Amino acid sequence: MSHQDGKLRPVLRFSDLLIYGMTYMVPVAPWVIFGFLHVTSGGTPALAYLLGMGCMVFTAASYATMVERVPRAGSVYAYARVALGPFAGFLAGWLMLLDYILFPALTCVFAAIGLNSQIPAIPREAWVVGLVLVTLAVNWFGIGVSARISAVLFWASVAAVGAFVIAAVIALSGGKGAGHVSTLSLWPAHIVWQSLLPGVALGVMSYLGFDGISTLSEEVRPEHRHLIGRAIMLSLLLTGVLFVVQASLLSDLMVGFTVGDPASLAYDVANATLGPTLGGVMTWTVVVAAIVAMVPICAGVARLMYAMGLDGQLPRVLGRVHAKHGTPHVAMLVTAVIALVVALVGVDHADELSTMINFGALGGFLLLHLSVLRYFGKREKTVRFVRHRLLPGIGLLVSVGLLLSLSPLALAVGAGWLVAGLLLWAVVLRGRPASEGLPVDEGMDSRVGV
């Protein structure tokens, strides 16, 4: 495949992909949304995280299946385009763009809120501008540089999680909270499913990001490309374990604790049971983790725009690659501008931004599962029932169920975005000539590099 100003460079290894996916999901995410998850899940946040991970396993399996056949930077956009046709491909890409556009803005807002709480003299808006510029600078010089910086800070976040787990176990053994490590939040005596399901939908939001690994397919070393699917699944499972353990320990610690502001519940519990020092460390760790997460998040957005630009589904200028650094620099600039605008508008409305993200992701996942069902049997005659029929079939039903459980605001914003995309296709894109990227009727072979 020829690119206009250069080529995406295959420099990433399996370990880079694994860290990328886990960084995207933010290992310390439970500290940020624990209060909201506790309220929406009926007091069972660990179970909500566990079930959310179970829901996403089917989606991870479909990603792992399709990335072997269509190893392109466009991810689900490319899969739907090959399996279902140009319109479905555009629709999948357009829906995922809603998720990919809002997610970096939301992460930036969380980081700005944390920084402002520590240094009130600098307003949130100033932090937003600074964070977006730093993220753009890191990504500008190539995915290899981004991966190395992310890896260092990722391990710092994991170390902080480890410190929290050890301190929590010691505090519980010493009589704090429940007085012992329990499974009450993971599997209570009585489960009210109607109260739990909204929590599962919110928990799913924390897992959005493992799919971002697939956007880097063209930048993976040829000898590691067969491991992309494994990195997708393993990043989901490892992060899920971290989420469940942290949520369970926080639930044990807060036994007898009066819930105040859900946004600060995790920090309030830590300050009361583990001491203000660790509470302060947790706050700064969340800030650092959010900043670190912005690097892969913005990289994924840019690569989806790059793939759609290359195929003429968005302005073709987005398909340009920097000749020196091998990065989709135009798409990166556009991503930075959009993230900046959305973050500035929503800097005081993080809760509303959170509710809007899932629509685009779940809509894209729905088309992903349809792509697997369509691809195997029509384009590829060999069909394995479990991998190519059962898993994507269950994933399709799960995606529909989660979509229907979203808030009215999320559904309204998602419907508006969908209508805008349909108008764009009908008025501008429908009559365009064949793309300059992947031929829809030829597909790609996973054994051949891009």
UniProtKB/TrEMBL annotation:
Coiled coil: none annotated. It is a multi-pass membrane protein. Keywords: Cell membrane, Membrane, Transmembrane, Transmembrane helix. InterPro entries: AA/rel_permease1, APC_superfamily. Pfam families: AA_permease_2 (PF13520). The chain crosses the membrane at residues 17-40, 46-66, 87-114, 126-145, 152-171, 191-210, 231-250, 281-306, 327-347, 353-376, 388-404. It comes from the Bacteria. It is found in: Cell membrane. This is APC family permease. Its main location: membrane.
